[in-house]
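FORM 12-B: Structure-to-Sequence Request
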């Protein structure tokens, strides 16, 4: 899941709003002792967002039996998996950021373009979410 605690609270509110008319619906929002946020409902949705031992983001989401995960690899790049499909966003040895996914997409961003992207999105993680929305889910 993207964003900060405010975004997570908005997600929980949306889930409750969408399902509140069902008498058997319940959702929980909790933060464990390791500062991992967990949102779960009784309809099969579960989100866990925390950090790994290096302080990098680690997000796991389950929706109706489908599993997804976002994490940083050892090189600092981002990796996303949803069931059998994968996407990555990593810097190469020439300092270019490269997006690749299992649908055959590959996009490179040079230094000048990358700086404009950072100015607009703030972080590579936020831009990676944009790429996932555009190329991973719109296929």
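FORM 12-B RESPONSE
SEQUENCE OUT:
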């Amino acid at each position: 899941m993207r964003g900060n605690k405010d975004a997570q609270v908005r997600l929980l509110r949306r889930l409750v709003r969408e399902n509140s008319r069902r008498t058997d619906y319940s959702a929980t929002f909790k933060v464990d002792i390791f500062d991992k946020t967990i949102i779960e409902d009784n309809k099969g949705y579960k989100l866990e967002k925390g950090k790994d031992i290096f302080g990098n983001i680690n997000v796991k989401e389950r929706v109706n039996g489908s599993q997804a995960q976002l994490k940083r690899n050892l090189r600092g790049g981002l990796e996303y998996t949803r069931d059998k499909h994968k996407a990555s966003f990593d810097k190469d040895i020439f300092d270019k950021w490269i997006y690749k996914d299992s649908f055959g997409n590959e996009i490179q961003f040079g230094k000048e373009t990358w700086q404009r992207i950072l100015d607009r999105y703030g972080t590579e993680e936020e831009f990676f979410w944009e790429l996932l929305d555009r190329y991973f889910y719109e296929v």
